[in-house]
Amino acid sequence: MENLHLPQIFQSGMTLQRRAPVCIWGRAQSEARVTIRLAGNTVHTVASEGAFSAYLPPMEAGSGLTLTVSTDKETITIDDVALGEVWLAGGQSNMEYLLRDDAEVAGEMQVNLPEVRCYEVPKVVYPGQENDRDYSAVGVWRRARGEEAKYFTAVGYYFAKKLHAELNVPIGIINLTWGGTSASAYMREDYLTGALKPYLDRAAEAQAKLDPVSELERYRKLQKHLDDLHFDNSVSNLAPMQPDPSMMAFMAEMGELFLSRYSPFRPCGLYETMLKPTSPYTISGVIWYQGESDAAYADTYELLMQRMIACWRTLWKAELPFLIVQLASFEEMMERLDFVPIRAAQERLTKSCGKVWLACAMDAGMRYDIHPKHKRPIGERLALQALSKVYGRAILADSPALEGAKREGDTLVLHFAHAGEGLALRGETPETLELIVDGVEQNAFSASVDGNELRITSPEIADAKTVTLAFCQHPFCIDNICNCAGLPMLPFVYTWNA
Questions:
Q1: What is the predicted pLDDT for the residue at 227?
Q2: Contact 58, 73 (CB under 8 A)
Q3: Three-state DSSP state, 460
Q4: Cα–Cα distance between 317 and 319 in angstroms, integer?
């Protein structure tokens, strides 16, 4: 029987976190003395109840290193270990989205960056699922070179590529994603209390309607059908999709099993099967792209994310930075969806939760496709946030954000933070603006940018008691105002009162 064992993520080609204590853990025979060596450092520990863990001291960046973990009887040797910056990429399908489907993949196939690496956590959601699916292509560390790079999370790839260029150290990405999942799937049950308890109640109600004898077999068949489907995510939807009868039947079956005890979409499931086994792998922080699947419960999304972040920080015993993507402009694939409230909740989260920052993706969206095909701007904006907020670079990383306004005669003048050298337009005039004066929507007004100001002019403003300006407050809209770094303006609603 194998006595010494390391988690799957510990393998040749891995990246470990520099400048922080690095946790190495695994299984060994109880009372066995375990010795861990890396980069001239040696630590010892003793296995207790079949498990061990120990921390290597902080180390500087490097590559081509060898990690050994040994007992008196066994040794595990892991080659080509790098030390650098490690980030966990979490969320649903837009973070899961692979580089192979990105609009710019052809150009990226010429890149050879062996010190940019990515590990995909195997998608397992119930015990024994590893025997029900083919996992031969996942659970390995890949390098950003040629065909290997195609299997990076696209957002994670562009994020890592920019960090590598700026920091000149190895970068590791841990891809822990599952398309279509709620943030509740990645949380411990005791965090889903109070206003969040309905997540558990809905799951319990759905599971009560299922036959426990046939539930697993039904879900296995559904999962096999999903695995056999081949979606070409690189093709854009240019109009709403019209499902055929067979798809409607499949969707009905999926609806019944959506919150099954074996489903990745049930609350708390992926916390146990994917997140918890990945911790406490030492990381620098989290990049997060999710929210679409919680749009129906936008009123509690800010709280949901607060609790999820608290849960992860407790699990890692660290105040992990979270860099979050604000959902892109989008309207409909098979049904109309409204992400306006979720976007607002995501921005509020940056004010109500410490060490949480936002990358705006409003200008990257597609009207009839929930998966933007150009992930570069999203990944690079996350990298700007990391460089600014985590690594202390004095750069412009935030999107323009409204900080105040005043009336000057017939003009409402709005002032923005993070404009840099000044606001700019992509086009002749600002779009997706709505002006309401004393409760009446105005169709005729002019808008322009000047330095850090957006100026709205209308004769009706001069004697108004109340002026409201809304920017990008529709599911799909054109965000064509940006700062000098090309970062799009955050959506907002502002009311000025005389």
A1: 84
A2: no
A3: helix
A4: 7
> Mapping DSSP to helix (H, G, I), strand (E, B) and coil, where does residue 25 land?
strand
Give Cα separations from 144 to 7, 116, 151, 335, 385 (angstroms). Answer: 23, 6, 9, 36, 22
DSSP 3-state assignment of 439?
coil
pLDDT profile of the chain (498 residues), mean per 10: 87 98 97 97 97 98 98 97 98 98 96 97 94 91 96 98 98 98 98 98 98 95 85 83 81 92 98 97 98 97 98 98 98 93 98 98 96 97 98 98 96 98 94 96 95 97 97 97 98 96
Cβ proximity of 161 and 167 under 8 Å: no
As given in the structure block, the two tokens for residue 425 are: 């337009």
The letter for the amino acid at 69 is V
Torsion of CA 432, 179, 154, 121, to 10 degrees: 150
Residue 449 CB-half CA count within 13 A: 23
Residue with tokens 């009311």: 495
Contacts of 289 (CB under 8 A, 6+ apart): 89, 90, 91, 92, 94, 95, 155, 324, 325, 378
The CA-atom distances, in angstroms, between 139 and each of 14, 136, 289, 293 are 11, 8, 21, 25
Which residues touch 415 (CB under 8 Å, ≥6 apart)? 402, 403, 404, 405, 406, 452, 453
- How many degrees, rounded to 5, is the angle at CA 344 between CA 342 and CA 349? 95
Looking up tokens 């992860």 gives 312
CA 288 to chain centre: 2
Q: Is residue 150 within 8 Å of residue 99, measured between CB atoms?
A: yes
CA angle 330, 331, 336 (to 5 degrees): 145
Amino acid at 455: R
pLDDT at 2: 60
